[in-house]
Amino acid sequence: MMIGMNTEACDPAELAALHEIFASRPDAAPAAGWEAVRAFEAQHGIVLPEPYRTFVAEVCDGLPDGPPYYGLLPLAETPSDWGEGRPERLLAEPFPLTAAWLWDEDEDEGGDETAFEARTDAVFDHGSLLLGTDGCGMYWHLVVTGPQRGHVWQIAGEGAMPFGPASPDAPMPGAPGFAGWVAHWAQGRDWFPDA
User: From CA 163, how far away is CA 185, in angstroms rounded?
Assistant: First the structure.
């Protein structure tokens, strides 16, 4: 976990910034409330990371016009293009990555297609909550369990990478975590500044 990112206690400044961003959006969904958040957590055997947890309970539970491009999903939903027949989402299982992985580079190595598919399925379905999609199979996930808890990742057909690594030469630099990801979007900045 990165220094300065607290996923256990909600930073009042982060919550105030999130409230300000979403208060100006008339189509923001009402907050889910603490009862709904606790029921979701009990159903999945997790505790959501802060500030997302308090944000959904007290500020907003979805926004049709972003972030991401096709909107911020309500707590318990998946995007319409998520697909039928996908493996069960196991939020209590640890998210399996700690660094970016471009699986197109690994696909042909080893020749064990079943093991490769199990590993990629785990990236899509273990330890993360879907925040939304930018379309074309690009999904934004908030990691809820494992070493990357609280970080936002983009997971697509080509691979997975975190938003907000501290390194300025990272593909998606910015402040890590849900609040940093939302602030980046609200400022109108590109996800991939060098693309």
Answer: 11
